[in-house]
Amino acid sequence: MVDDLLRLESVDLDRGARRLLTGVSFQVRPGDCWQMLGSNGSGKTSLMRTIAGLTRLGLQGQRICTDNLLYQGHLPGLKTGLSCRENLRWHASGGVVSNVEKIDAALAHVGLQGYEDRVICQLSAGQQRRVGLARLWLSQAQLWLLDEPFTAIDVRGTALLEAQMQRHCAAGGAVVFTSHQPTGMSEIKILDLNQYAA
Amino acid sequence: MLPELGTFLRFQLQRHLQLALRRPSDVVGPLLFFLMVITLFPIGLGPDPKVLAVLSPGILWVVALLSSLVVSGRLFQADFEDGTLEQMVLSPHPLALSAMVEVFCHWLLSGVLLALVSPVFAALLNMPSRAIPVLMVSLLIGTLCLSLIGAVGAALTVALRRGGVLLSLLSIPLTVPVLIFGAAAVREAALGYDPSSWLALLGALAAGGCVLAPLAIAAGLRISLEA
């Protein structure tokens, strides 16, 4: 029996005085890839932040989650005054990365070869997203929580990202992500939040 | 238990200094603000050197307090807006320590700098020269207290759109003891008395602040992320 990386048991989620979700239960095991669906305002981001442990208010029910996680939300977590390489030197999920070649390799994976010393504020929105997502190639975290990872990413980038997510799952990791688009990934599990709407 | 805590803290310190030095206006701005407000006093009070000399400890300390409040209010703003704060919270390293590194950098580039150039401002107000070393030491310790208090307020108000006024209302009452001890030390020294007991009280505030403020800052930042 493999341990669950994440387990929610009949979780109710409030935001302020409003109840967003009732009775959410699901388990994430190593190798799982979950896509969270739901209309705008259905509580995807709130649930994601609660899973990551960023917010605790408004959560009722049991949440068990590994500490070894990577969370990438709507905010990129990048300093606009620093270069791509400098920005990738630290992330919560990987600690301090001192190996510059690893960082450059991660940037090359997301198609940003040659941009290593560019300052973030000189990059386009999509390129900035790519720098943030380059962390997926640097992270040692087992559970990835990605909130709208495909926003502002082009078709080729989306394919790259999907491939990396599948590679991570095949290597015993797990991914939970939100997206409105259907993806090209196989063996994907769907969590539709509309069915838990309060 | 904590992987490479030393490396992490050294790295954070280096990154914050690097970021601050790329925007030198953020470092020089508060000093110019300080200078401008100081020059307002001779204009408002009249240029009598004797009057200015008597009032100078109080003036310098009140202006130091205000300029410290102005800059510390935005301490965690950038981290909150670009998502770095989320990653600081999720990091296995204690939030209190990484926030403390940030406060320390802020103090280095505001308080320490202010203390170093304060003799120039003291001369502008005709402060007796024997009080100037005490002014520098009291500002050095006092601005650390002010940065810590300002950081607690900044942590609590970072998620608010217009937190500026609320921040001042929260912080100013807490800064009163710092002002009392700091200004008293300089006044005593200007009169030729021994200021060491006032400086010791100021040091006690700084020591207590270094222990307790990080916990309050971390709690404040977590609350701000709930919004």
Topology of helices and strands:
The complex is a heterodimer of chains A (about 200) and B (about 230).
Chain A: E1 6-15, E2 18-28, E3 33-37, H1 44-52, E4 59-65, E5 69-72, H2 84-87, E6 90-91, E7 95-96, H3 100-109, H4 125-133, E8 143-147, H5 155-170, E9 174-178, E10 189-192
Parallel strand pairs in A: 3-9, 3-10, 5-8, 8-9
Antiparallel strand pairs in A: 1-2, 1-4, 6-7
Chain B: H1 5-22, H2 24-45, H3 49-72, H4 77-82, H5 84-90, H6 95-124, H7 132-157, H8 164-190, H9 196-226
Helix pairs in contact in B: 1-6, 2-3, 2-6, 3-6, 3-7, 3-8, 6-7, 6-9, 7-8, 7-9, 8-9
List keywords for this structure.
heterodimer; A: about 200 residues; alpha/beta; Rossmann fold; 2 domains; globular; B: mainly alpha; 9 helices
Tell me the total number of β-strands of chain A: 10
> Residue ranges of chain B: pLDDT <50 for 5 or more in a row?
none
Strand content of chain B: under 5%
Q: Would you tell me the structural class of the helices and strands of chain B?
A: mainly alpha
Provide the succession of SSEs of chain A. Answer: EEEHEEHEEHHEHEE
CATH architecture of the largest domain in chain A: 3-Layer(aba) Sandwich
CATH topology of the largest domain in chain A: Rossmann fold
Give me the Rg of chain B, rounded.
Answer: 18 Å
Described by strand count, sense and barrel closure, the largest sheet of chain B is: none
Helix amount of chain A: 10-25%
The figure for the number of domains of chain A is: 2
Query: What's the CATH first level of the largest domain in chain A?
Result: Alpha Beta
Which outline of chain A best applies? globular
Number of domains of chain B: 1
Strand order of the largest sheet of chain A: 5-8-9-3-10
How far apart lie the N and C ends of chain A?
Answer: 33 Å
**SS-derived structural category of chain A:** alpha/beta
User: Per DSSP, what share of the residues of chain A sits in E-state strands of 2 or more residues?
Assistant: 25-35%
